[in-house]
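Summary of Year 1 activities. Much of the first year was spent building the evaluation harness for sequence design. The harness presents a backbone, in tokenized form, and records the residue chosen at every position. We chose the following record to illustrate the format because it has been used consistently in internal testing since the harness was completed.
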């Protein structure tokens, strides 16, 4: 279980399978550690995501901003994470109607209420090629950006296990300021193609957390599927990263 991973137990996590009140005004995705203020909620039934069921699991499809009732999920209240050091944003995501061509910016996990970035955000970003980007802030007002080459990551509308780490002590290697952010896809490290001077600590501003929806809890420009999302206080061991990747793996093919 995710709670058996120390860094996740000290942070927060959400599983599409762990919901209550689906199809009612009481719908919420429960925060795995029991922090009820940090449950993801959507009281408007028409704007709730669509439940999927692949390979024996449960996932959600978030409708995009162009749909009649776009889907959003955000925490019931603002969150002060309680830590400013090493941090991870991890999860299973898919862009089913993007086919490797992201429109604008698609937020996967965020702890911010809009630009400028207040703490940390994991995005898919349009470009040539498209990219996966992680933005961090050291002061709660500005942000620096690290983007990994995204060639082929979302091509074919496949599920992807994405990990983004703020790594101030270079636990995962590196020595330059720009290498304090790492991005992995299906457990493989991605080459950083746009770098900034990443600080040594994260801001700990109080803002909502959103999963698979844009800043301020608005709908994304692309339809987004998700199965799990982890917001880790620290960087799990490789063995535990593999366990997290396979806990609610929607593909039916284990990652190693």
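For this record, the design step produced the sequence shown next.
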């Amino acid at each position: 279980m995710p709670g058996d991973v120390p860094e996740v137990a000290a942070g927060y996590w959400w599983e599409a399978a762990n919901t209550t009140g689906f199809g009612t005004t009481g719908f919420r995705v429960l925060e795995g550690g029991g922090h009820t203020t940090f449950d993801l909620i959507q009281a408007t039934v028409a704007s709730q995501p669509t439940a999927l069921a692949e390979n024996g699991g449960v996932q959600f499809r978030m409708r995009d901003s162009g749909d009649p009732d776009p889907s959003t999920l955000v925490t019931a209240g603002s969150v002060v994470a309680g830590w400013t050091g090493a941090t991870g944003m991890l999860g299973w995501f898919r862009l089913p109607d993007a086919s490797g061509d992201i429109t604008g910016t698609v937020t996967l996990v965020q702890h911010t209420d809009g630009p400028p970035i207040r703490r940390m955000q994991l995005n898919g970003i349009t470009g040539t090629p498209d990219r996966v980007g992680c933005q961090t802030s050291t002061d709660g007002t500005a942000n620096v950006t690290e983007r990994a080459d995204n060639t082929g990551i979302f091509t074919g509308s496949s599920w992807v296990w994405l990990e983004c780490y703020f790594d101030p002590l270079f636990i995962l290697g590196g020595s330059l300021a720009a290498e304090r952010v790492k991005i992995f896809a299906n457990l493989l490290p991605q080459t950083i193609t746009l770098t900034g001077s990443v600080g040594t600590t994260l801001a700990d501003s109080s803002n909502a957390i959103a999963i698979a929806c844009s800043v301020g809890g608005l709908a994304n420009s692309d339809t987004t599927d998700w199965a799990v999302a982890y917001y880790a206080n620290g960087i799990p061991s490789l063995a535990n990263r593999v366990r997290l990747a396979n806990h609610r793996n929607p593909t039916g093919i284990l990652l190693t």
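Helices lie at 6-9, 238-247. Quantitative recovery figures across the full test set are reported in Table 2.
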